[in-house]
Amino acid sequence: MKHCKTILFVVHESKKSGAPLLLLNLLRMFEQSAAFNIEILISKTGELDDAFDAIAATYFYNPKYLSALNLKSKILRKVLPKAQTLKRYQKNLYHNLEAKNYDCIYFNSLGCYPIFPFLENYKAKKVVHVHELNDVVSGMDQHTVKKMLNNADVIVSSYNVVTDFLKNQFQIQQNDILQNAVYLFPDRKVAIDALDEVPKPADAIFRIGGCGSVELRKGTDIFVDFAIKTIKEMPEVSLEFIWVGNAQTELAETLKATIKTEKLEHHITFVGSTPTPEVYFKTLDVFFLSSREEAFGLVALENAYCKNPLVCFDIIGDLPLFINQYKCGKVIPKYDFNVFKAFIMELIEDSSYARALGEEGKKAVVNYFNIEDQAKVIKEVLVL
């Protein structure tokens, strides 16, 4: 009888962000195929705990009472010595995991570096999936990151730019890296498809959107700066700039004050975090990814699938490659407002050109960025 392998999937944090959601969707597909046995270890607890636990047996690197807010957990934190309790808990956890005899351990991100020493000596094939670039990786413990990469049996890179980063920063050889791609999450596809029959607003407003937590890396300050300039320099056009994503940040408050000073509150809006961002995406005429650094920007795939033309800066990342290869928008020189403004004018004046860009973007997502193809690559890595 053929041995059915058991894989331990390590999640760096159980929150609704790129890498954890990528893994969650892959696990749902793997669960349906029954290609191997799945177990999960979560390094940092979060809002996706229950979703992971619904798929397979799920363990936690830190006991949940250390972060839970219920009364019992608060009492336990007061009466139990934290360091001693944690050490005993993790020792027992390791013994339990060791008894499982996993064939492979998959680390979903370099963000797993805090938990890597815990599993470093575990005798199993180790796969490390890398999504991050320098701005994020530079904030990690470099010694552990290097050890993690050097001890990996397989390194999976989600983007061309990540592959180049690994080669240049850590001297990883090209033939030691498996190139994979991101994909449009199935639930996001379903949500967007459900709005296909909903027409865009019938008004004459041209809407430009951005998305992400309001922070410098996402370039929200650039988004607002370009919005103010565009509105002032194109007074004959009805414009609205919409930013979707966490606006509970210090930068958000500063930008809101600037918008208020300019008396443009009705033209530039922060809608905050929402479980249904597609409702806003489907109203847009163009999506502006204003990031200073971005490996890809999964939200760009969602907007391409919504048939929104894309515009981004010529940054190090795969989105400029996506836009240029599939002819679904415009890559502009870094922070060049004049080129941005000219592109917006072109879209406004030539609606057939805008529609063509949108059609090409959706076609690319459907044909080349689907979960089935990406799951096949990961599955082969895990079971070989």
Summed up:
This protein is of the alpha/beta class and 384 residues long. 45% of the residues lie in helices and 16% in strands. The chain folds into 2 domains: 6-183 and 371-383, Glycogen Phosphorylase B (Rossmann fold, 3-Layer(aba) Sandwich); 187-368, Glycogen Phosphorylase B (Rossmann fold, 3-Layer(aba) Sandwich), CATH 3.40.50.
Layout of secondary structure:
Elements: E1 6-11, H1 18-33, E2 37-42, H2 49-53, E3 57-60, H3 71-79, H4 82-98, E4 104-107, H5 116-119, E5 125-130, H6 134-137, H7 142-150, E6 154-157, H8 160-170, E7 177-179, H9 186-193, E8 206-211, H10 220-233, E9 239-244, H11 250-261, E10 268-272, H12 278-281, E11 286-289, H13 298-305, E12 310-313, H14 319-326, E13 329-332, H15 337-349, H16 351-368, H17 371-383
Parallel strand pairs: 1-2, 1-4, 2-3, 4-5, 5-6, 6-7, 8-9, 8-11, 9-10, 11-12, 12-13
Helix pairs in contact: 1-17, 10-11, 13-16, 15-16
Descriptive terms for the model:
single chain, 384 residues, alpha/beta, Rossmann fold, seven-stranded parallel beta sheet, six-stranded parallel beta sheet, 17 helices
